[in-house]
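Quick note —
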Amino acid sequence: MDEKLLKSFGITVDRDSCPFPVLNVKNSAGSARISLYGGHVLTYAPAGERPVLWMSSKSRYEIGKAIRGGVPVCWPWFGPAAQPGLPAHGFARTAMWEFSTARKLAGDATQIVLSLDDSQCDPALCTIKFHLELSVTVGKILELELRAVNTGKSTEKYQAALHTYFDVSEAEKISIHGLDKLHYTDKAPGFAGNQAIQNGDLEIDREIDRVFCPAPGGVTISDPVFRRSIRVEKCGSRSTVVWNPWIAKSQAMPDFGDNEYHRMLCVECANVFEDTRTVQPGEMTVMTQKISVEKWD
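Predicted structure written out below.
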């Protein structure tokens, strides 16, 4: 990376706080920290506002371990792997991505593009030929675009998720709009595999692990304590995942504080279940997520 060039875009490289490079992006509209490890957006906030993304205080910043919080990139599968011994949620979130380009956009936004292909991945985990690009635009809104190209000679099936962790005041007091009357698969303990229909706004009062599909529209997280709404819009995705681990699972995860479930909520733009993508050689899939914040008077 040409660090002198990056500085001209308002980007500095932090090589000290983690065992891998982190790009610090700051402009008049917003700021973010983006890890090359995992192609992972760690933090984001509009200028002068509180954080939008949540990070666990127990997160492990270690090569070979997934980072807990921010926006992990789950690819090319979601959830448990089909083959024993492979990591949950794919290998992209624990691979070292490369910096490709940076540019200034309208509204003083800054765009960074990271890339990953099969030559950069552990061959024990990756048996397919591919090229990924993650475009991150930091400004008044946060926009992420994940592009996946099948560079091999065989048809492949891709699942993906931008597994976004949002910072909320108290999970029990927020509400999630935009999922009413949608079908979902419940993956929470005691309900695993159950099919149901959402009735009204979704509220958090226990462990929530739901995959809504088809769910092509966006959702809004309303937070009466922080007095703001977070709008999550998407394109190229017909599935949405909502997750909060609640008490028992929080206590069981070593990289998650026992009581941190109060302060977070995952709403994930995804291609999962019947939204899994079949990709022919040379073809590309594109999934985009836009995150904006509206303050209440």
